[in-house]
Amino acid sequence: MTKYITLCTIAVFVCCGVSAQNKKQAALQLKINGIIKKMTLEEKIDMLHGNALFSSGGVKRLSIPELTSDDGPLGVREEIKRFDWNSANWTTDSATFLPNGAAIAATWNPDMANRYGVVLGEEANARKKVVMLSPAFNICRMPLCGRTYEYYSEDPYLNAQLAIQSVKGIQSQHVAACVKHFAANNQEVGRDSVNAIIDQRALREIYLPAFKAAIQQGNAYSIMSAYNKVNGYWCSENDFLLNKILKKEWGFKGVVMSDWGGTHHTVAAANNGLDIEMGSSGTYDQWYFAKPLLAAVKSGQVSEKTIDDKVRRILWVMYHTSMSENHPAGSIATPAHSKAAYDIASESIVLLKNDAGLLPLKNNIKSIAVIGDNATRTFALGGYGAGVKVKYEVTALAGIRAKFGKTAEIKFAQGYKANYLANKKENADYNKPDQAMIDEAVALAKTTDVAILCVGSNREYESEGHDRKNLDLPFGEQALINAVTAVNPNTVIVIMAGAPYDLSEIKRSAHTIVWSWFNGSEAGNALANVLKGVVNPSGKLPFTFPVSLQDSPAFALDTYPGDGRTAEYKEGILVGYRWYDTKKIDPLYCFGYGLSYTNFGYSALKTDKKNYKPGDKIKVSVSIKNKGNVAGKEVLQLYVSKVNPTVLRADKELKAFKKILIAPTKTIAVNINVNINDLAYFNDKQSKWVIEPGEYKIMAASSSKDIRQVTSFFIQK
Ligand code: BGC
After folding, report:
1. What is this structure's pTM?
2. DSSP alpha helices (H): ranges in 172-325?
């Protein structure tokens, strides 16, 4: 009988002339089914849980290898011992440190996300890792979240476009991306216990789109369930998220892996969609998905069909990765990887203020004071989160020396002490300025043509496992900044950090502010080239910097961190700029903001038609002129807004963007499409997407607050 069905399946595929790809997939499923038939229940269950810190079991008898994994996202983590977190002391695992997630997002360039992915995939192969626990792109709901630096953005569309390309890049190397953390891991305080209460509309419009895109358009082979609960259920046993949405609605064929130690039950997790349990504690054969799962199958609480489905998914991932044909050998820390890290970093740096025209620095500068702990600090490691054992990391001071050292004298003063450790219970005095260090910095800054102040945070201060307490710049930096800017009128303030900070005082008093990130192996070179003008800055903020914490939705509505058990996302869809714009609250720096050494003029915004139907594509065109005398990259941002909506809508939403290089004085006609279906809102009551007919405004913008051209169109019923 089975043979008959098999033949018929093949016949149907042949007769219908389905694509070669479909035939290949059907043949693969047959092969996988054949393997599963040969497996004992015990062997199947061995594949469903960790057998070491970063691998789950294989079946030697059938030549099925272990499924090895590694962190991500900053690069491939160093080899640790099989059963503990200590270094394995390898000499061949020095890797490329790639810019953090928010830096990638600040490039607003999906090609950069793709290149990031390719590097990660190649380095994973060199290390024989099958699953990269990356990219991470939970929505930046709340500015204090300790993992904001790892994540991308507050906007679901920007998130999605980058996630798709990161996944494609990683998987182009036959390595599985594991997109994380599904879903709504938006705060670190209480992450192991908090129940995020989110309405359907906010889930669908804000928190899920990038995951959906990574699965459906990026074809991600695996996904990590988050630590927290969503609407009452742990993410690792959330039938709604894992079975109904991910596997059924989105057609996900790959593997759901728990976050490390994020599994809570055997039967609920097995039946509600988890495929592999990772990172639990205790002896491996006692984990939820080990002997207890075997017992649950024997007692009929979990069916063998469910187990087979999980094994099928794992084998499917293996056949696309470790067991794939022509599997690439990979390479690690190559010059090409450095170039990718450099290019991403160069495009991620955001010029926040340049009022005195101090940047780019002039060639006649004879002396530079480089001041600040961050000038000599490296960011590849630190805090709780996964880091990278780097082959090298160019600090800001090293980059500045390399770029300016031939023509200017470069001197350094530390300026402040970064007395903060993520794993210390109390970091009592970390905010106290060090007067002696400030005096030294001031004395130095008085003597030089230019002062470059490298401040911000670091990987201890922003870390997985905890949230920041406030938006203040730490380590007494403000006192240092005030003192140095008072004595040197040519001070450039460089902030290196991964999340929003309160820069109000600096914005008021300083004329030159540059935002950099935890920007990878080539950070210092990229920064120095921006300061020199070799690179014209083109980064744009991927999240809003609020004037005060109280302005931000989670704080305004008193929903953070919740009562320790629940965090009610009362702001619904009004996350990030959707909140500030709709509530008419001016931010300090808005979403999408970033200056250039040139400036751009917008004209002739047009849509190809005035009236559209659901399913249509709006062909938008707009002309952008580089009005200056240096080449520059502009990020065209298209926002759409419903006129007189019948339901609550955000003031505007990003629906398309494009980064374009424009030569000096030249004009480029940019064509960009917006899908009408992407303008739908999720109707909670009807539990479906609805495209509201009527008038819409479309805005071509240089940031979410800098709207340059507006036109309107209509959607017909
Ligand atoms: C993090 C994950 C990470 C895992 C393994 C967890 O604490 O939340 O992002 O992949 O550890 O290191």
Report:
1. 0.96
2. 200-202, 209-216, 267-271, 291-298, 304-320
